[in-house]
Each structure stands twice: as C-alpha cells, then as structure tokens.
Amino acid sequence: MRNWSGHVEFTSTGVTVPANLSELQLLVGSSARIRALGTAHSFNAIADTTGIHVSVAGLDSQIDIDSRASVAWVPAAMRYGEVARLLDAQGWAIPNMASLGHISIAGTIATGTHGSGDHNQTLSASVAGIEMVTTAGDLITITEGEPDFEGSVVALGALGVTTRVLLRIQPRFEVRQYVFDGVTHAALLDGFDEAFASAYSVSFFTCWAPDLTGKIWMKRREGVDASLSGEQLAGGARMGGHLADSKRHPLPEHEAIHCTEQLGELLPWHEALPHFKLDFTPSSGDELQTEYLVPRAQAVRLLRSLESLAPRLHPHLHVSEIRTMRADNLWLSGAYGRDTVGIHFTWKKVPDALALLPEIDALLGAAAGRPHWGKLYAASPSSLIDRYPRFADFGALAHRMDPHGKFRNATLDALLSARVMPR
Predict the structure, then answer these.
(1) pTM of the model
(2) What range defines the domain where residue 25 resides?
(3) How does DSSP assign 369-410, residue by residue?
(4) What are the pLDDT digits (tens) for 231-266?
(5) The domain spanning residue 88 has which CATH number?
(6) Which of 114, 137, 172 is the last residue of a domain?
(7) What does the H/E/C string look like for 109-151?
(8) Cβ atoms within 10 A of the Cβ of 292, count?
(9) Same domain flag for 196 and 149
(10) How far apart are CA 355 and CA 348, in angstroms?
C-alpha cells in the first residue's frame, strides 16, 4: 500500500473502515498502534504507522450548517472539493482553498495545508472546532477558545482520530481567473507587494529556467477586487507579462483540460480558487513535492538567493509555485505568528531530484523557513521544532493526550522526543 505518488510504501498491516462511530471508538480503544489515513496525498511518512490504518470515510457524510453562527460541521474524510460543492449549493463558502480539491478535510488541516492570498489565512485557520476519538476510544470536542484548541488543529494526527471539523463559513461569492505569461523574476521581485496584492488570490509559477520567467495566476473576487482595465487586458502590462489568450496549465507543455476555467470567466468560488477541477485527476502522480513557508518580510531576499541554485533546480523540476498567506495563531501552522510566503517545488520523480534538499533547507531554514509537514525536506527534527515557538507546548499536549504513543510513528517519535516539556 502506497501514497498517492507511489513514493512512500506504508508499513501498516492494513486499512480498516468502520461503518459507524461506535465501531471506530471500539477499534481505537482496543488498538496498540493506530493512525488515521485520508487521501494519502502526503509525500513523506507522516501518515504511516506500524499498526493499523483507519479510514473514517464510512462514517456519516452529512454536513450540518448553523446559519446563525456561520459555521458548519463537516465530515473529516470528505474531500475539500466535495464539501465546497455542498456548501455552495446552500449559499455558503469558505474563504480559501488549496490548489487541489481532492484532499481530505482532516488531512489538509492536520498538516497545515494552505491556499493563497495576502488577506487569507491557511485552511486550518478556518477551523472553529475539532471532534475526535482519543486514545481510550472516547469522543471529545475541542472548540475555539478552549486552552488546547490552538494546538489541536494542525496536530499531525498525534492527538486522536478526527471525525468531524467545524468550519467558519461565509456567503458564497464568485471569482474571475486570469493568467499572465512572460513575467520575469526581476519584475516580480521588484514589485512583489504590488503583484500579490493585485487579486484575492495570486500564484506565481516558475521553472527556474535560464531566462527566469514565469506565469502569474490571478484570482479576482467579484465585488471586492477591481476588474481588470481595458489597458491591462489589451496591453498585458502586468509585471512585464502579457495576458494569456488560452487556458494554461501550471506545468509547461501540459494540456490544461484538468485546470479550472480562466480567461476572466465568472465562476463560483470553488471552481476558481483551486487550480484543478475536482472531477479530473490533476496529474499522473509522477512527482514529488517540497514546500517551505518563510517569513513574508524575508521572502524577496530568499527568492533572490534561490536564483543562485536555478541552474541545478531547473533540470529536476516540473514547476515551482510562490504564494502568500496571512498570519495565524495555530501552534504548528507554517504561518504561525507571521505573514508568510510559500515556496513550493514539484520535482520530477528521478533519482537526483532531491539532492538539493539540504541546500534548500540550509538557505530557507536559516530564515526560520518551515517545511510543509506533508512534503519532503531535509531538516533534522531538532532544527525543525526550533522554528515553531510553541512546539514544546504541543509536545506536552501530545504526551498528555496520548501518553503511550498509540497515534505516533517514527516521524512523530523523533519530533516529540527532541523536546517534550514546555519552556
């Protein structure tokens, strides 16, 4: 049994899918080692276990909306794109989405996965409550405002098996998506703040090719962002680039059929914020991924420094994506305590693709860059946890909630043994 990309072979004895909550509680309470498995989109061993994997996909799949409080309980196993469709059908939305709508709610939140936008927080920051089954098989709910809440959202599966998530919601909205070709690194970095403030959600894609040019994906929220002017549409005067005249795929020379619609078409929020359509497989899985979340204040300097690695990055990359996000207060979030820029690398699955990871970590880690929990990185456990001011508090919470390590694996054991007591 492997993860989505086929890169990780799981060591678990199998996957069990309880048909109801009582079965799940009995299974968790009676197991020596157990770990939740979502859509297996992690690129490292964070989801693995030497015990059994459990999927909560067999539990109740209803969404429970509280219109007065503007919140909704959603099933942990449901994919983000499916939740989005159900919310939109009832007039509601969540503020942000990741590139893929194919990943599960619980897995996305547990690893700190994010969307983009100067004023948008990570997906985990929309969480107002977590329902989970704990080590003894008890069902508990932790809601915003409780002492453990900020450590229980991005929790790496270390506290229990999540069954439902309470999300803050807002009235549905619409988005127009545009792509600009031929944007140079120099123009982007010189006008970094202007470029990423130009729309509700902005991504820059580059292959770190010798010409150091890329594409800007601009997602403009109707009624919030100003419409593109005729001059911009006709002349393409945006960071030195020009408006694409047909749909684009983030990866060069790939067909754009899997991508969400572009060219300024007015779309429901959930059909424009992700880069890829839910009804299609976005790629073959023949890839590996790395991402670092770096302080916004140092992002331009770090991106300029990465250009020195460009001749060695380019041969091994499918593409790289740059995005921004607003600070949050979740202990293990990549955006904890600071406005953040995500620097993402989608590698070709070839033997030498990951040779640069130590150099990338040396450069970005020196600026307290935090690797995405579900992707590939070279940071040691001790250096990694030093980049999270509240990691010691999280370690104490994990040891209190799971003192015998039922939900742990080799990755979590290494992290939690590095520091277990609060400072």
Answers:
(1) 0.94
(2) 15-54
(3) -EE-TTS-----HHHHHTT-TTHHHHHHHHHHH-TT-TT--H
(4) 455 444 556 788 999 999 998 878 898 899 999 999
(5) 3.30.465.10
(6) 172
(7) HHCCCCCCCCCCCCHHHHEEEEEEECCCCCEEEEECCCCCHHH
(8) 27
(9) no
(10) 12
